[in-house]
Design brief:
Distance between the termini: 41 Å
Strand order of the largest sheet: 1-2-3-6-7-8-9-10
Largest sheet: 8 strands, parallel, barrel
Oligomer: single chain
CATH superfamily: Aldolase class I
Structural class: alpha/beta
Number of helices: 13
CATH topology: TIM Barrel
Helix content: 40-55%
């Protein structure tokens, strides 16, 4: 069952274009996500393979999500009103994820962070419960935590964090991109997708990073704001999909955005 669900997310080429739409859990009505149904329709039109989102969006927009793989986030922390200072906690269980028709569960962990051990324990326990029901787990491995400075997100730290996620039984990893990403992909024996982070100023820079990550062995992307806050989310999804699944160059992807 785990393999069947993974095939709802990763395509036959072994790659996945995952659009992250879980930002409302922390930021409320995030720009670009005020009307989730409309946003989902746009990214599905553009060729998204899967969506990573909240329990609320999963149950309220099941029709719009029906054509793509569904990854439901199970954990959460404090909102931006508290400065995101709360440690991660489990908000939803495996049974609730299965009730939404989810194909995978998402959990974050923070090697090198203040709550390192707690976050790794939450990940390992969740993996055990999810696998008992044939549900894959996406481990979002972020060295130092979501607000960690660049010096915490070295290639070596990302490689360590990703490997730890694999060792704890995760089925695929979401992690930051860094130069020399081969060090991450070669030392992690499960699929690795790169996260997008904050909205980038230049679309070309993001597309170049995606291309470089794929050339270095990454299995795809899990990008949110750089897609749903784009001027044309459908076109941005289409451009990234062209790089992932059709081998398009950065210039060809930019041409898609210019149409």
């Amino acid at each position: 069952m785990t393999t069947r669900r993974m095939n709802r997310i990763f395509q036959s080429d072994g790659r996945a274009l995952i659009v992250a739409l879980d930002h409302g859990l922390l930021d409320g009505p995030t720009p670009g996500l005020e009307k989730p149904g409309e946003t989902i329709s746009k990214i599905v039109e553009g060729g998204a393979d899967a969506v990573l989102t909240s329990y609320g969006i999963s149950i309220r927009f099941a029709k719009e999500l029906a054509r793509v793989g569904l990854i439901m986030r199970a954990d959460g922390s404090g909102t931006r009103m508290s400065g995101y200072k709360s440690a991660n906690s489990i908000f939803f269980n495996v049974e609730q994820a299965l009730d939404t028709g989810a194909d995978a569960l998402a959990i974050s962990a923070f090697p090198g962070g203040a709550n390192e051990v707690e976050s790794l324990e939450i990940l390992s326990q969740t993996v055990g419960r999810a696998h008992a029901h044939g549900l894959p787990v996406l481990a979002e491995m972020v060295p130092g935590g979501f607000d960690s400075p660049p010096e915490k997100r070295t290639t070596e730290a990302i490689a360590l964090a990703s490997r730890v996620g694999a060792e704890l039984g995760a089925d695929f990893i979401k992690t930051p991109y860094a130069p020399n990403f081969e060090q991450v992909s070669k030392s992690t024996y499960i699929p690795v997708v790169i996260l997008g982070g904050a909205k980038r100023g230049k679309e070309a820079d993001m597309l170049k990073d995606i291309k470089a990550a794929l050339d270095a062995g990454a299995n795809g992307v899990a990008i949110g704001r750089n897609i749903f806050q784009a001027e044309d989310p459908a076109a941005m999804t289409r451009a990234i999909s062209a790089i992932l699944h059709n081998g398009a160059s950065v210039e060809e992807a930019l041409a898609i955005l210019a149409k």
